[in-house]
Amino acid sequence: MSDQLPLIIVCDRFEFVHDLVLHLFKNNLQKYIEIYVQKVNPLRTPVVVGALLDVDCEESTIKSLLGSVKGDVSVSQLVEEVEKRNRLKLILPFLENKVSNGSQDPEVHNALAKIYIDSNRNAPAFLKENQFYDSLVIGKYCEKRDPYLAVISYERGHCDLELIEVTNANSMFKNQARYLVKRRDMDLWKHVLDPENVHRRQLIDQVVQTALPENQDPDGVSITVKAFMENDLPNELMELLEKIVLENSIFSDNRNLQNLLILTAIKANTPKVMEYVTKLDNYDVQDIANIAIGAELYEEAFTIFKKYGANTKEEKKKFEEMEKKKLEEGKGKIKQENSQIKNPNETRTKLRNKLGLKGKNFLFFYSITIFNF
Hints:
This protein is mainly α. It is built from 24 helices and no strands.
């Protein structure tokens, strides 16, 4: 048949395009393939390209054919045809031409991203700077190839749960911690700080050791601290606050953070209170001292007022009155304990823990205990 147009039209109508291309190629009628995609039906170009790959057509011929098509070509279908044959890179010139002509089609940019990722062609920069690819699609594509690139993609698109999942699976807790501090999302914090999260401790370590010390954003610190408070993690909160308050950081002199560190210690770890009130110097003296008194941390409260020279005589008298009352209560406790203590050489630490005593006051109580024994 000298004129292949009738055959082309019939095959196009009844979707025998793949067979048509095989026939034309084997009979050296490539010019009719060009006529078909250029003038008859450009939309069939992806199928034509797939068929040409199946007959081992030279890449240069296929690239030339793609460049000659002026009508609309479905990029998603074209990507599907070449991708399932592991020849995605073949259409790179076609895609780059689309971009140079101003295309913002996500399918175009997704395909470019895949090519840059597979060819190691400065993929991190592309994923950070390109505005048009689909973060979820490319993130999934990267997970098995390069989890680091998946994190970049997910972070760019705020694909929170996907980022948490891939960082957990690859022990990338430093990346996860940085993302959480930067993201400032209380619901997401609640998700990762759930007691059922088996990775929680590893994440907290990286928040304390890396993410917050690196952070320069007050809002990031504020939301992170709030998240630890709302999820009832006082000991972990102290770890976090110690890192950013006791060690040199731009937040070391923050009054609210110093107050919070001392108050958290009063609630969760009283032996730390004396250390904090001694080292820190920008907390609310009167308020913290009064709270310490209410918690029966008299030495700590007196140390605060002595350190700042505020109402020392008056407060000292107040402490003496409180301690006198506590001494009387302590004597009663000692008599009650005597009947239960079998070992007269019970250590000071054990007795101290029983009576809730500490520091210099304990020495006085200890002398009373020896006397009563």
